[in-house]
Design brief:
By secondary structure, the protein is an alpha+beta fold. The protein has a domain at 27-174 and 204-279. It is built from 8 helices and 15 strands. A hairpin with an 8-residue loop joins β9 and β10. It is elongated and about 100 Å long. Bound molecules: 2-acetamido-2-deoxy-beta-D-glucopyranose (NAG) (2 copies). Residues 93, 95, 261-263 line the site of one 2-acetamido-2-deoxy-beta-D-glucopyranose. Keywords: Endosome, Golgi apparatus, Membrane, Signal, Transmembrane, Transmembrane helix. It holds the Pfam family EMP70. Its main location: membrane. It comes from Linum tenue.
Amino acid sequence: MPNTHWAFLFVVLLAHSCNGFYLPDSYMHTYSTGDKIFAKVNSLTSIETELPFSYYSLPYCKPDEGIKKSAENLGELLMGDQIDNSPYRFRMNVNESVYLCTTPPLSEHGVKLLKQRTRDLYQVNMILDNLPVMRYATQNGIKIQWTRFPVGYTPQNNNEDYIINHLKFTVLVHEYEGRGVEIIGTGEEGMGVISEGDKKVASGYEIVGFEVVPCSVKYDSETMIKLHKYDNITSPSCPLELEKSQIIRQQERVSFTYEVEFVKSDVRWPSRWDAYLKMEGARVHWFSILNSLMVIFFLAGIVFVIFLRTMRRDLTRYEELDKEAQAQMNEELSGWKLVVCDVF
Ligand SMILES: *[C@@H]1O[C@H](CO)[C@@H](O)[C@H](O)[C@H]1NC(C)=O
Ligand SMILES: *[C@@H]1O[C@H](CO)[C@@H](O)[C@H](O)[C@H]1NC(C)=O
């Protein structure tokens, strides 16, 4: 009887896993012109300290609907990330430059915190349509790429810190040629799961790249404070002079702005991760994989030892009983022997 129960449970589990969830990033989203897409923010991280902090522990602009955790897919859950929503709003194929918010005058505590995070080289992790933001820079003539941008920066031989408050985004999009059906996931035996509802000819744009140029811009807070969230501004140029950058200092008000350009790209959706795979720094991932494997083996070892001890105790008890006693005891067998038929 328990055998049938298990078989039933197995079937239920199988059926559930078939349409229950999709593998991370296996779901292609197409957007039409004007569709709103909000970026997400992950914890602030630093290679210096390894200790992550929540994005909203710094005085960044908050979304209108409040801060919500949005671990949306298996990948995000498995990484143990703290992914929150953000007010960075993108409208497909709308190039714009907008105002977000202005902080109250910075307090002594706020200044200390911002300076500390800047000096500890904390970085912002932003995600759009599952793609981490990519930043390119040239250092000593070598082109390098990162998947995050700094909270602020400290010029050399300088005691002051400057905050990144303007972000220039480039979103690469690929025009989607509708094939009538959309493969939205991978089911059993590698077969594509095709959504029945989307059998009409689909068209739109896929997001295949997300890049940022971070800047520090000094705004006149008196004029900025009169603006509303998402009001258009004239796009500032990234200043090279420190006098035109936003310093982190007590009583300063920091205005946050961003601009976005949508650029058509030949990169197709399945290849959109190629740029990331070329990156260096996979060492950290190997380390965490090794770490997880060790934990798994350790726990499996504990379970195995407990299992072995229980089995051995049962077996020695059976051996101690001579044959006649065993025959009498046949109805009251207990422990491992009772379930051995069910397991195998
Ligand atoms: C702001 O600029 C965008 C893109 O140029 C435009 O679509 C939008 O209507 C503008 N908004 C206002 C309030 O002017
Ligand atoms: C947005 O800007 C990019 C780059 O300047 C340009 O190629 C594209 O045509 C612009 N899109 C619109 C809708 O104006």
